[in-house]
Write a structure and sequence with these properties.
heterodimer; A: six-stranded parallel beta sheet; 22% strand; B: 50% helix
């Protein structure tokens, strides 16, 4: 008999008592918690992710490219990776941002270049979570997984209107279970470790810096 | 730059070895102090995450409900998981033993002419001693979690499931790096030390043909693997190499993604006192057509290694509720004094004491359930409410008795039985069930108490000798009656 058959035979031989599904208990639990008012969600997200060592710039939706240019100049970013077929990627083309480099071909031919010669990457997000200061990053064929991981600086666009109170809200409201990408991500700050004597250090393996451009209405800066 | 280091095979010698190692650590004031400090820090950070005890209780009830529900339909969920993973393009493998798991992984590596495998943190890979098997086959298996990397470079084993290098000081790590990493000079600066590790490992992520990871939660309904981490090495291992192999125990499956949410919230808060980790990596398949990165091939190895034995019994099944947060270790008065290495098992501390007997048998581990004060702290902090003290008592019982009628004997059933203990308990029962004989015994014991030996084997090593009282309780009561 195969290992699989043996394992299932042993599991099925055990007597188990059916239990009620926890779904309604989970829903009731999250409904019982105090909720942040809708108007305060973006502010709470910004505060929380700042506490996780991210740099947050609230900026009107029409002005994020100008803010990006400031960030690029201030940090001395020579090469900025972007996804040319995304909506924000199209905005960037021809906007005069220094050092733009498109992620337009499979990684297999230029892994080393990505690891060694790219200073920063800019990506979109699918939303954010106020409770923990977390971004929802949803890589796909247009905006690949490694953009938010390999370059030392990750710049992310978060629309203030997409901030939800909790992870549970995000998963249920956005219907994650019906269409997960090959790799969905929650990102809460830059990469970090406390593995040496519980001393916190940033930039363990992933980005050392996380810059969030929080896109708001024209007057909400 | 080569940093390969042969890892040590676990050599567990029961009883006397555990006691010898524990005694050695207790006698080392430096190690004791650093361990204790680290554990106090983790306890404090956890407590700060749970200011409302009533809310914590509700969260624990919910998490327990989710884990018990998942286990109640474990075979169905595993079938569903397998079928959905296959639909997503993930190859699923089953292993009953560590050897089978290693053979599966080795086979995949050989098909891809693997020279280097980069590893994200995986306790199950430690459990099956994958590094040892890879090493024997001439494949470098390199740990990339900073703590694991340090421990591997030192040729040691993790001493904590969440913070593997918690027993090492920054001075020791500075010396280790200066000695083992080419071109590095001594520095105690933690940022600089992390940067050294980062530089070495980034090159390895690029080179490696295979990336290996563990799994924190497997979701049956969607065929998804969830990984929890702060460093990003887990993402590197699951994204950069062409092949990703995940390895996990069969108990890690839950039905829905929604069921993961309360468990994840409790895992990070209980483990390191963080409300959330930097990364929550949700993987639902290898690179799809048209995608520009991600592994081209993905595998999941589901390991039994004694878990079906725990599953067979309703009480012992609760062991499998564990989400591997390590809070029971951080709060254990024994673990905080002796550290992880004394146990000689992959999983140390209270959870190690209840899970290892299923993996290694009671023959090798029967002393461990006994090394507990039964103070109850582990059960109290457990986010999924595993009654660890009850399970310790149960395993003590199984270690010293034959299997009860109708129960299959456990691996190593009765291994802790000694003829002296059986004799002593038989004598005790004989004496205490015969009143006349018992009276004669207490009469003699109180009169001849001066004959009690000063050296009473293990007891008097650290305690004063046991001596019968001058008068028995019966005599005292009789005198009191006379006085009226």
């Amino acid at each position: 008999m195969s290992a699989r058959e043996n394992i299932f035979r042993k599991l099925r031989a055990a007597s188990t008592t059916p239990l009620p599904a926890p779904d309604s208990a989970i829903t009731a639990h999250y409904a019982s918690l105090p909720r942040t008012a809708k108007a305060d969600l973006a502010r709470e997200f910004a505060e929380k992710i700042t506490a996780w060592h991210a740099e947050v710039h609230a900026v009107p939706r029409s002005a994020w490219v100008a803010k990006l240019k400031e960030v690029v100049a201030a940090k001395g970013i020579a090469t900025l990776l972007y996804a040319p077929t995304t909506a924000h990627g199209k905005v960037l083309e021809g906007a005069g941002v220094q050092g733009l480099k498109p992620y337009d071909k499979p990684i297999d031919g230029w892994k080393q270049e990505l690891f060694e010669n790219v200073d920063a990457a800019i990506t979109g997000t699918r939303g954010a979570i106020a409770e923990t200061g977390t971004m929802i990053v949803w890589p796909d064929a247009d905006e690949p997984r490694l953009m938010s991981l390999v370059p030392p600086i990750h710049i992310a666009l978060v629309d203030a209107d997409t901030v939800v109170p909790t992870l549970y809200d995000a998963i249920t409201q956005q219907g994650w279970s019906r269409g997960l990408p090959t790799n969905a991500l929650l990102i809460t700050g830059p990469s970090k470790t406390a593995d040496i004597q519980q001393t916190l250090a940033y930039g363990a393996h992933g980005p050392k810096e996380l810059v969030v451009l929080l896109l708001t209405g024209e007057d909400a800066q | 730059m080569s940093t390969q280091q042969t890892t040590h095979h676990i050599q567990f010698v029961p009883g006397s070895e555990f006691k010898r190692r524990a005694a050695g650590i207790v006698a080392d004031p430096f190690l004791k102090k650093s361990f204790r400090g680290a554990m106090d820090f983790l306890m404090m950070k956890r407590a700060a995450q749970f200011p409302d005890p009533e809310l914590l209780e509700r969260q624990r009830d919910l998490a327990e409900h989710i884990r018990r529900y998942s286990l109640s339909k474990l075979p169905q969920l595993l079938e569903q998981l397998e079928s959905n993973l296959k639909k997503n393009g993930v190859q699923v493998h089953w292993a009953e033993t560590p050897d089978e798991a290693n053979a599966i992984i080795l086979d995949i590596c050989r098909r891809h002419d693997t020279k280097l495998m980069v590893k994200g943190k995986s306790m199950v890979s430690e459990e099956v001693e994958l590094n040892h098997a890879m090493d024997a086959a001439g494949i470098e298996a390199l740990e990339s979690d900073m703590g694991e990397y340090i421990v591997q470079l030192a040729g040691e084993k993790p001493s904590h499931i969440i913070m593997p290098a918690i027993h090492k000081t920054k001075q020791q790590i500075a010396e280790l790096f200066a000695e083992k990493v080419p071109g590095v000079s001594y520095t105690e600066d933690v940022d600089a030390l992390i940067q050294i590790g980062r530089d070495v490992l980034r090159k390895k992520f690029m080179e490696a043909e295979v990336g290996l990871s563990g799994v924190n939660f497997a979701v049956a309904e969607t065929g998804t693997l969830c990984l929890v981490e702060n460093e990003g090495n887990g993402r590197m291992c699951t994204t950069v190499p062409d092949v990703h192999i995940a390895i996990t125990g069969i108990e890690k499956v839950v039905e829905k993604l929604e069921h993961v949410v309360p468990l994840y919230g409790l895992l990070t808060r209980s483990a390191t006192g963080q409300a959330i980790t930097t990364y929550f990596n949700v993987i639902t398949g290898p690179r799809k057509d048209g995608e520009k990165d991600g592994p081209k091939e993905m595998h999941l190895v589901l390991v039994d290694n004694g878990r079906t034995q725990a599953f067979a019994d309703e009480q012992l099944r609760q062991t499998l509720q564990c989400i591997r947060c390590g809070a029971c270790m951080n709060h254990c008065p024994v673990y905080t004094r002796i550290g992880g290495h004394a146990y000689g098992t992959t999983y140390p501390g209270p959870i190690g004491k209840i899970v290892s007997p299923h993996m290694m048998g009671l023959g090798a581990t029967h002393v461990l359930p006994g090394a507990s004060t039964l103070c109850g702290a582990c059960g109290e902090v457990c986010p999924v409410k595993i009654p660890i003290p009850d399970l310790l008592i149960r395993l003590r019982e199984e270690a010293t008795h034959e299997a009860k009628p109708g129960h299959a004997p456990m691996f190593g059933q009765g291994a802790g039985k000694t003829s002296f203990a059986s004799f002593a308990f038989k004598g005790f029962a004989f004496l205490y069930s015969r009143p006349a004989l018992y009276r004669l015994f207490t009469w003699a014991a109180t009169r001849f108490r001066f004959l009690t030996p000063a050296n009473q084997a293990g007891w008097t090593k650290t305690r004063t000798p046991l001596t019968p009282a001058k008068k028995s309780l019966r005599d005292l009561l009789a005198e009191r009656g006379k006085r009226g």
